[in-house]
Amino acid sequence: YTLGSISADSLPDADPLKCDFSSYCNKYAAFIIKFLAIEKPYQHKKLGTSILPYLIKFFTARCANFPVRYITIEALPECVAWYERIGFTQTTRANSDKNILMYYDAIEKSRVDLLMEHFLDN
Questions:
Q1: What is the dihedral angle through the alpha carbons of 54, 60, 64, 66, rounded to the nearest 10 degrees?
Q2: Which of 11, 20, 91, 105 could be cross-linked to 15 through a Cys-Cys bond (beta carbons 3.0 to 4.6 Å apart)?
Q3: Given a cut of 70, is residue 114 above it in pLDDT?
Q4: pLDDT mean across residues, the chain
Q5: Nearest in space to 3 (alpha carbons), one of 71, 89, 53, 99
Q6: Confidence band (pLDDT; 50, 70, 90) for 46?
């Protein structure tokens, strides 16, 4: 993984923080998982289903200590529904290759309320 950012323009308009914070910044910090792959002989054995929640927990714990809100991943089109079941959402960004950029909102609701309070009071 790497630490990078996701453009606010890539997020759906329904994202509550996009609406409220887009005037402050155009990018959000994100942990970027470029690819998650299981070799063919080991596919359909629930390995990815076991690994991804662990990764989400790992990154979410780090989001509590760093100003990082999102986890992103490049998904193969045939895997999009699987990532959505786990909690990822497709971005609106058009991708030139066949992969689809997806994100997971790793910030807790209580932290969203604190951020809203901070930005709206200042």
A1: 110
A2: 11
A3: no
A4: 76
A5: 71
A6: confident
pLDDT tens digits, 70-111: 888 988 888 899 999 888 999 876 566 788 889 888 876 555
Residue 111 near residue 99 (C-beta atoms within 8 A) = no
User: Contact at 8 Å (CB) between 62 and 50?
Assistant: no
Q: What is the DSSP string of 6-58?
A: EEGGGS-TT-HHHHHHTTT-SEEEEEEE------GGGTTSSHHHHHHHHHHHH
Task: Measure the CA–CA gap between 114 and 91, rounded to whole angstroms.
Answer: 25
Q: In what order do the strands lie in the sheet with 27-33?
A: 2-7, 27-33, 70-75, 100-105, 89-90
